[in-house]
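Hey, weird one. I pasted the alanine--glyoxylate transaminase sequence into the form twice and got a warning about non-standard characters only the second time. First submission, copied straight from the form history:
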Amino acid sequence: SNTNSQVSEPPACLLKPLEVPNKLLMGPGPSNPPPRVLAAGALPLLGHMHPEFFEVLDDVKAGIQYVFQTKNEWTYAISGSGHAAMEAAVVNLLEIGDVALVCQNGIWGGRIAEMVDRNGSIVKKLVRPMGEVFSLEEIEQGLKEHKPKLVFVTYGESSSGSAQPLEGLGDLCRKYDALLLVDSVAIAGGAPLFMDAWNIDVLYSGSQKVMGAPPATSPISFNQRARDVIANRKTKVRSYYLDAAELANYWGCDENPRRYHHTCLVSSIYALREGLARLAEQGLEKSWQEHRKCAEMLYEGLEKMGLEMWIKDKAIRNPCVTTIRVPEGVEWKKVVDHLMKQHKIEIAGALGKDLLGEIWRIGIMGHNCTPENVNRTLQALKEALDLYWKK
Ligand code: PMP
């Protein structure tokens, strides 16, 4: 007999039930979805071309328009995590040789720059230390010097904890005939954001932070200026999967009948719909207020323990992700591990090597944004510091 054709044993690990611990996710994302969102993900499957599912897509579109405060027709969710939306923005807006001005004050500018480079486009960078933000003056300088087709900024930086002021930036980009691309993955829904009023041309986010759905789908919106740039491309978008015009058709954003493009993530869209519904019921302004209030509680509690925030100026802190200076003599990881082992609470250290050992990051997002969760986290942190911080 031919031994090569013998069926191997089924993997023993799969013959045991799936077990997952229940953790409180107070890191920079994902956050815990509320039970209704998880339940929505378990609803009966529909086909991705069924009329009932198109209605769910329409709800999601309306929800994203609300969270982004936009009337843009091309507003939908990319099938994939935040990186897929980043890549969608880059490959649709830029062609080979086009110049992008990337403002980098943390991980995310670096990631976008890498994507721009892989797309055959040209990266020009403005760089600031993590925790600082960019002034309109220096961005204007960059616009004058590099004449980019696109400017990228991160609104809510999750690696440094900063929030880039956006007012006036859209107008500035228009003055120099550049598109403004903004990353709002770690902040949309948790702080004021007005895509249309602030003249943001392309904006994306992610399902798994303030929107409170599992990671899987990434809201994105293109305004008319961005659509014109896409319509006037000389070359095809280099990604089939992320082609914005094709996705717009599937999401019912043009006058043509919806065509199959790829099998949409049906259950993940249910979950996103419920996350957006939760935000709609709460009301955006209330959500912004709650995130601000819980962030203030967190700052106060941390300062009471003798800790210092990484970013001194409250006005440029991302309320959804707080960065804390690790005190001299404390091993950051022991504290993180203590919270996880003793309390099943996730907080994080640095992302990337730049601030490794220097900061902790605590996220307060969406369903997790409650005074109870802030207090639980503070208490657990105090316990860990009593053990590991010898003053
Ligand atoms: N941008 C920011 C600001 C983020 O915080 C994240 C996720 N940490 C991303 C982009 C990428 O999202 P994802 O991990 O879902 O691909």
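That's the output from the first submission. The warning seems to come from a hidden character in my clipboard, not from the data itself. Residues 342 and 358 are 23 Å apart (CA to CA).
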